[in-house]
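Run log, item B.
One chain of 705 residues. Sequence copied directly from the ordering sheet:
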Amino acid sequence: DRKERGGGPKKRNIAAMAAFGGLDDDDEDDDADLLGGDEEEGEEGSGSQRLTSKALILFLVDCSPNMHLKYNFEESKEMTYFESVCKQIHTICRQKLKKGQLDHVGLVLFNCHDTQNDWNHQSCRIEIPLKELDKFAIDHLAELLSGTREVKAHATMVDSDDKSHLDLALWCCTSIFNDSLEKNAKKGIYILTCNDDMEAGSFLGSDKTKNDKKKASAQAQCLQRVKDSSEKGILIDVWPLYDAISLVQDGPMPTHFQCTPFFKNLLQVSVNTDDCISETKEEEIAYRLTERKISDLDKEIDGGLCSRSQASLEWMITPPGEMPFKIAIKLFSLTMEAKKPTPIKVQTQTNKTIKAVTQNMCAATGKLLDAQQMESFYNFGGGSIPLTKHETLKLKSMDIPQGITTLGFAPKHLVIKPGHNLRACWLMRPDDKRASNSCTSFRALLQVLVEKDEVAICCIRKRSNDAARLHALVPQREVRACDERTIIACEGFHVVPLPFADDIRTLPPGFALSEEPEQPAVDAAKKLLKCLKFGDEFFQYLESGNMSNPSLLTQFAQIEALALSTKVDRADPVTNLDETMKLIEVPKYMIQGEVAEKIKKNVELLKAAVSAEYDVEMESKSAGGKRKREVDPEAAAKATEKKEDAQRIVAETNWSSMLANNSLSKATMPMLKAYCDAHDLKKPSAAKKADLMEVVVTHLNQLDT
């Protein structure tokens, strides 16, 4: 089906998945894989490229002497800035592997003691080549953290040709991106340094007597390099390091990172106004250079490089005619079920990947059939009505154009009903890159609908082979946290699917709750709920949405430990298994202690207030919590008769003699099944004769022993 759309079968990267037991990118919505040409396509002739969900990330880390001084930090032990950067990069790589993101990550060091790159850029060292994440990159970063792999700072910090090391490092990163085969992936360079005096000649050393003309020339050369990279679609960001408290050894404390004009100009060139959360570009630059910490780097990378639209469509606001009014929009998924990675099957002898091939076979003759030898039909009144794929697609589309067509507007309370949730809704956002002024028109409509408390009723065909469905566009204003930077709710329309009459299920008769509880029962329930309150930590996790899936974390921790030949660390900050398990387990203070006694007392009060026969009803359940099944006399009689027949068949056969003469293969399937039933042996599901013989032989050998 995917080949007919031109998309081809979904490709999987075997090398990166095999490194960590089959981690793949199946967490993406299935709708995104079936979009065909509708997703993230540029306009014809515009020269725009179709971006993929994969990201290429290069960490450009300074290795000057100040980066290797021991500092005291508030939240950790004594370490250098270089160690804190490697620790954070190590965490980011593990987080990406945990989420199944097959991004390309590389580590480039500048101001190094030695030169190690293909272009011979001085003092630039490619520590980790840009490639898909695997266990070797994790091991390499762990060696940098432990000190096994030593990185020396550049001793003189002065070159003979007076060229900036940062300029050469950016040149090196651009060359790495040019050599990458992932041309349409999102690219990002993150500069991490604690030195704010990196403009032109000051960057090259502490000599302040250099000519101002050389400084300006070197600064312009570096900024031009940044501008060229930005024009190629490369994101360049600066992460200053300034959170150290004091030096461990005696000596003057280096000055904290300042917003120097050089870095302001660098971000002025590279920061995109569309990505700014602040009101102005200057506020965004000041925030990036003064308020961000290295611990926020993983959130920035996930938020900036992992966004992906589910579809790019046209919203027809007015009926089609002489003066149609339409804007360009994109659809995003706010929630998506995280699934466990699928293991990859390989051949035992060669360790090569097995490819599954689906073929169609005639049920009567067993002959393999191709597409030309098959047709589809539907049952109607006992007859077969054939339909071709073209006819089926035409019936599904009903000649409704692909996109979003507005049918009208209605009050919100009449349309949105609780319980009528066909699936998770999308978030609709404007796309000014495909059609100018889409954002202005989008926000004007949103503001009017919010004021009137109405929703737009639309007919949406997301893909060319989709059936049209009715959706309600529910407007939502932007909501931010107290810091004015964290966006809690994004501005846009929630695209809510509306059920047809065929989709709504009615409740069975007698489903209503007929008996009203008496006031003593209500009072007892209030007292019980008052005791069953959770701590503030649990509500903080609920509010922030940071409750991780313990099943996924446990599997990732086990696979990672096997891949790296280590033990599972339940207190590891990346997996954090101990803290996660506490969130889904009943707190200990509810099982034992004063709170547990109050809960027990209130439960007894509630039982007494509800019904005198409450305990009798509960005792009729088994220990597992399920009610015991009532015994059917007819079924019991049939089971007894079946077991007696099996015992009779077994008694008529000399099984020990058959085993000694190697003639057990002459026994029929009913005889083998009867032996298993007579001795209460567990039979394999869908067992063949060889499986039953193995069970019987094992049991006979145990009897002989």
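Observations after the first pass:
- The chain has 23 helices and 21 strands.
- The longest strand covers residues 124-132.
Flagged for discussion on Thursday.
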